[in-house]
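Working notes for the structural subgroup meeting. M.R. asked for a predicted model of this chain before we commit to crystallization trials. I am recording the input and output together here so anyone reviewing the notebook later can reproduce the run.

Input as submitted:
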Amino acid sequence: MITSRDVIKVSARFDGYLENTHRDRHMQV
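Returned structure, recorded in token form:
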């Protein structure tokens, strides 16, 4: 069973992943 807490944790981690990849891509350029 997935709780709302797990969903928030995963979504926050995914947002951090997108932010990190965007930051790395910006640094490369």
